[in-house]
Amino acid sequence: MPEKSMRVLVVDDEPQIRKLLRVSLGAHGYIVDETETGLDGISRAATFKPDLIILDLGLPDIEGKEVVRQVREWSQVPIIILTARDQEQEKVETLDAGADDYITKPFGVSELMARMRVSLRRTARSDDEPVIVCGGLQVDLAQRRVTISGNEVKLTPTEYDLLKELAQHAGKVLTHKQLLKTVWGNLHSEDTHYIRVYVGQLRRKIEDDPTQPRYIISEPGVGYRLMGK
């Protein structure tokens, strides 16, 4: 059960998907509202005030990406995309527009709910929380200090900035473009080799086995997410 009755808005034009989510989420204590169009979804997001939105991309009136863009003009509510489209470019564009995560149909309800919990925890965490903990990894923002299982890890300034960005959005997919803009600036928005090099360096320092990473997870063609186990 959620700690309190979290409100979830489902925007999907498939009645069977809406029913599945209404029943499954309702059984776990979530309050669910639903609609089949993007424009109504935007309106419901303002009136229902959900804690999280589950959104399809292929809607009958406007594209799901446009729903994300419009909602992001006034709200940072977590948005999880649930869609049959699996093209990498579509994922990148949707995440760059402001979505938090992306799950491709057919999907498992348990996987969706796990992603929901991660997004809701991230939202609930105070933005000024000084120490971010992901499994055995700790990032102390105040002291710019990183430890693994209590042992301090020495990072270069750029390595730290990259890890800090991933840690502050732990569980969320960050696209190459988002990471490049934040860590290296707008002039390097296409230099994805920078990220590959620095992710490789970080993995060698924080992973038990850099070839089987537990923390910095690749989303092929899209970007990276930090996961703590």
From TrEMBL:
Keywords: DNA-binding, Phosphoprotein, Transcription, Transcription regulation
Domain Response regulatory residues, every copy: 7-120
DNA-binding span(s): 129-228
Presence of the UniProt keyword Metal-binding in the record: no
Annotated Gene3D superfamilies: 3.40.50.2300, 6.10.250.690, Winged helix-like DNA-binding domain superfamily/Winged helix DNA-binding domain
Entries under InterPro entries matching the protein: CheY-like_superfamily, OmpR/PhoB-type_DNA-bd, Sig_transdc_resp-reg_receiver, WalR-like, WH-like_DNA-bd_sf
SUPFAM superfamilies named in the record: CheY-like
Positions of modified residues (4-aspartylphosphate): 56
Residue ranges constituting the OmpR/PhoB-type domain according to the UniProt record: 129-228
Protein name per UniProt: Response regulator
Organism name: Anaeroselena agilis
